[in-house]
Amino acid sequence: MTDDRNGPGFPEEGEYVLTQDWPGEAERLALLEAMVDPLCRRALTAAGVRPGLRCLEFGAGSGSVARWLADRVGDPALVTATDVDLGLLGPLAAAGVTVRRHDVVVDDFPPGSFDLIHSRAVLEHLPAREAVLDRLAGWLAPDGVLVVTDCAIDTTAAVPAPVGAALQAWIEVLGITGTDYAWACGFPDPLVQRSYRDVGVEWLRPDLVGGGPVARFWALTVERLRVRIVAAGLADDAVVDAALARLADAAFVAPAPAFVATWGRRPVPGS
After folding, report:
1. CA-based torsion, 215, 218, 220, 226: positive or negative
2. pLDDT in tens, 47-80
3. What is the SS3 assignment for 220?
4. Using CA atoms, how far apart are residues 109 and 99, in angstroms rounded to an integer?
5. Considering the entire predicted model, what is its pTM?
6. Is the dihedral of CA 242, 243, 248, 253 positive or negative?
7. Would you list the domain boundaries of the chain?
8. Using one digit for the tens of pLDDT, what is the confidence trace for 211-240?
9. CA 263 from centroid of its chain's CA atoms
10. 72, 58, 132, 36 alpha-carbon torsion, rounded to 10°
11. Distance between CA 26 and CA 88 in Å, rounded?
């Protein structure tokens, strides 16, 4: 296979390719929510979410975590949900949540704006993730809590071919844009290094069961990136087709990519 870096569909450094304009994206995000929302809720509960907290959910996607936060804090107006694409957040705004177009890399909030900040599957995609993480503490109140949930995978060696090959191609094609799925494998170290207090961590290690919702999520994710995977020479259509067939086969079982959440209380200034 060739690596045609001038061909159509080839990903670029810094490009976010999992945009909401793909026809299957709403289903893909709904499957992600079903799979990972329980982890996010456990982490947020462990971090101390309670009534009255001012919350920020950045990169809110289709808004399931922000909706849950609005219920837990007792007033939807206390929750701010942001994204660079607000196409799926209309129902949140109608329910009273503050919905705002906001790019976490370049846009700011006043110091101490929030008691709790959460993101899911955002920092992993940002080449400037470390700089963004440095900025987040300033948006927290003195005892505010940061909760970060990301995908964590550094190898697909345990996943049989052709599914393992397709998932490896997914990792590598997004790596071209600056995504780093191995970054979260080191959680909670990014918070420990920044002197966050009361740090915790929890893992989700689901299985790929052919035809099930986790397998369907990863099938849609691979299909979503097919054009870019092929354009980058990381796998051809035959490999992708074979992987999708296995992911739909009830006889197929393998470990799925993991997700991990870490949380901690804002560092004491000067620590």
Report:
1. negative
2. 999 999 999 999 999 999 999 999 999 999 999 9
3. helix
4. 14
5. 0.93
6. positive
7. 25-265
8. 999 999 999 999 999 999 999 999 999 999
9. 15
10. 70
11. 8
